[in-house]
Amino acid sequence: MTKTRRLEDLWSHIHCLGVLADTGSFTAAARRLQISKASVSQRIVELEQAAGVPLVRRTTRSVGLTEAGQTLVDQTAAAYSRIEEGFSAVRNLSEGPRGVLSVTAPVALGRQVIAPLIPGFLKRFPDVRIQLELSDHLASLATEGFDLAIRHVAGVPDTHVASVICETRSVLAATPEYLATHGTPKTPLDLAGHNCLHYLRRSGSATWSFESLEGDKRVAVPVRGSFTANNSEVLREVAAGSLGIALLPDFSANPALRSGELVEVLRGWRVVGDYAERLYAVRPYTPRVPLTVSSFVGYLREEIPASEALGGRSEATEGPAS
């Protein structure tokens, strides 16, 4: 005979069911809860035994809730949200942020900009632990269990909140040796005679669009080149080998520009519509911003030098993503 579980023994099990419903998989739920996948499965089994009805519908490809499971989640979600808000408010009264901060960022941006800043943050806030995953995959924060995403994109999902960290820009760059051999383009149309190293897009073809700094001229130029890649660090290194002219985000181009390894071309024109013009910190919507998240975003705004790593700093703003 199965022993009847006291309801208060099942609070964490019910919360686990809610996280499972939110993430859609046992693996993602385990990651968010920071427990093993087996522990998540065991809690769900125990909760089903206590409820006397199936709560989760399992298939080889997905996990969903039964009608009973969805009803339980719907009835308890608001209560757990209030508990989370209350605990966050109390924890924020402590001397500083603490706990685990799970962050995702693109590979090139993460390696060149974010990773070098992390030691300073962890020294300032020793009670915080950071889990950083570098991936160019646009992760679903709720599904994959991330607290924060750093994204160099034109827009983010309207289900999230986006904070602008700083403005960025795109840069055309080549080595002095390449330009001495092949000539320096004077206008965007001159790029037709150059080996253009561009970011690999699904369409396969590439068109670079420009606007004059005065804003009175626009031109789109189909470009061709002997090399494409889906990583700006790789494009920079190939350009440094004097192979051609590369279109790079400023965070990849600036170290080589400062050293003189590369020089900027077409300085009188602004590249539009290729790389994004803003760096965002993106988080799932919550009524109260976790202190670890706000502290890390604030730190990035402080430490990313506008004149060094990226193209410029904007006013700190936050609102629903668009």
Automatic annotation (TrEMBL):
Transmembrane segments: none
InterPro entries to which the protein is assigned, alphabetical: LysR-type_TF_proteobact-type (IPR058163), LysR_HTH_N (IPR000847), LysR_subst-bd (IPR005119), WH-like_DNA-bd_sf (IPR036388), WH_DNA-bd_sf (IPR036390)
Pfam families: HTH_1, LysR_substrate
HTH lysR-type domain sequence ranges: 9-66
Signal peptide: none
Keywords carried by this UniProt record: DNA-binding, Transcription, Transcription regulation
GO molecular function: DNA-binding transcription factor activity; sequence-specific DNA binding
One BP term from GO: DNA-templated transcription
Tree of life domain: Bacteria
PROSITE patterns in the cross-refs: HTH_LYSR
Family to which the UniProt record says this protein belongs: Belongs to the LysR transcriptional regulatory family.
Protein name: HTH-type transcriptional regulator DmlR
Organism for this UniProt entry: Achromobacter insolitus
